[in-house]
Amino acid sequence: MFFLKRNNSNKENVSEKRIVSDNVIDNANNVDIFIEFFHTLEGLKEFPYNLAIESVESLHRTAKSKEDFFYYLMEDSIFASLYSTFYEKLFITLIEEPSMANSLIDNFSEQCDEREALIAKHTHHHIQFIQNGGNCSGCLCCNNHKDVAALIPYWQNRDMDFFIELYVGMQTIQFTLENLLYDYIPSNLAIIPYLTEFNVLEFRKYLFNFATQQLRR
Question: How far is CA 124 from each of CA 18, 71, 76, 150, 190, rounded to the nearest angstrom?
Fold first, then answer.
């Protein structure tokens, strides 16, 4: 699972606009092709960062209390992070079976309800682990609790700013990967070889840093 701690130096690492040349895809480990895709969405109502901001504002409005809001921030952040790992697995499959890309994407879409139910179950177990201060009597997620252990002190300290940044960052990632999968890849199959684990991880880091910088303005 992918989480990032706050780091003020991130403010210096994200440029306002990335302009890449036509030969950017010459290197299979060049993440710029995906960064360029992300910035082509700027100015649109459905820009992933804008959707993430709308989402956190809606969450704040509908939460019955500050404590509920804080809980939902953590819950949805973990859910979004877990969801992104499913995108990553699909991207690897697309690289292995590029001729089946459209069918694989359709199947992924059709399995949405089943996937979300599984993610919700895993999210629940991770939250219990965090609320119990890192203790677990045994569950189906024990082997992966280490992925969320870094959140424990922020939960115990009720660090609202941290979880708002985490939420917006994770939502930005999820909305972007969703757009990439359903709206961009089907008509741009040539980018499939570049959906490597390295590129996707670096892209997720970039998106998180971008969202964090925007929040701190």
Answer: 38, 12, 11, 17, 38
